[in-house]
Design a protein that fits this description.
Structural class: alpha/beta
Helix content: 25-40%
CATH architecture: Alpha-Beta Barrel
Radius of gyration: 17 Å
Bound molecules: phosphoenolpyruvate, manganese (II) ion
Shape: globular
Number of helices: 9
CATH class: Alpha Beta
Strand content: 15-25%
Order of helices and strands: EEEHEHEHEHEHEHEHHEH
Number of strands: 10
CATH topology: TIM Barrel
Number of domains: 1
Oligomer: single chain
Strand order of the largest sheet: 3-4-5-6-7-8-9-10
Length: 258
Amino acid sequence: LVSRKKKPEDTVIEVNGERIGDGNPHFIMGPCAVESYEQVSTVAKAVKDQGLKLLRGGAFKPRTSPYDFQGLGLEGLKILREAADEHGLAVISEIVNPADIEKAVEYLDVIQIGARNMQNFELLKAAGSVNKPVLLKRGLSATISEFINAAEYVISRGNGNIILCERGIRTYEKATRNTLDISAVPILKQETHLPVYVDVTHSTGRRDLLLPTAKAALAVGADGVMAEVHPDPAVALSDSAQQMDIPTFDKFMNELKK
Ligand code: PEP
Ligand code: MN
C-alpha cells in the first residue's frame, strides 16, 4: 500500500497548516527530551519566531542505559502540549508502548515511532489504528526494504499518514554517531508515495555537521529536516553534544532559508 506503483501521486499530510510532502520543506525542531516547562517554552518561542509550526520533544525516552534520564512520560507530553499551544505549534513526540497510544493522542499531533522500535510490530499496528499521522524512523540496522515493510504495517491497519525518517544507520564508521544514508531519501521517494525526512541530529551526533547534512537532505529531495534545539545544551539531560542552542538554531534556519 505504500508503494508508488499502487499510488503514483505524493501523499500530503496536513499538520497545523503545514502540508508535509507538498514539495516545500517543513522543519521539525525542538529539544531531545522534555525537561521542564521553561525549557520547552523557550525553544517553542524560538521555533515560532522562525516561522515554523512543528515542535518535537521526547517524553518517553528510549535510552541505551537504564541509568540515564528516562523522560517525564505523560507529564512531559502535557508540558509539550501546553508550550506548543502557547506558541501555535503542533506537537510530535515518541511513544514506546502500544498501551500508551490511546492516551497520548489526546496530547499529540504526530506520533513518533523511534529507530529502536521500527520493528515493534504491536506498536506499529497500534499506531496504524488511530487517526493521527505517524513519523516512523528507520531502525539502526534496518535495510530500506525492512523500513518500507514497517511502514506497510502501519498503513495496513488503515493509517496512511506516515512520514518516513532517515536517521542514520550503524556502520563501522566512528567519526559520526551513525552513518547518514543520504541515498535512502531518493530511493524512498521513488519506491513509496510517502513524505521523507532526514534527522540530522541523531544521524551525525555532531553539531558541526547539522547544517551541511541538512543542506544535503534538501538537495536530494527530502520533505523536511528534524534537528534538536535546547536553551542550554551543556546541561541537557540527553544528547548534550549535538543539540543546538538558540543562536545556533537561528543561524542554521537562516542559512537553510537562503
Ligand atoms: C528521537 O528522535 O528522540 C530519537 C530517540 O531518535 P532515534 O529513534 O532516531 O534514535
Ligand atoms: Mn536526541
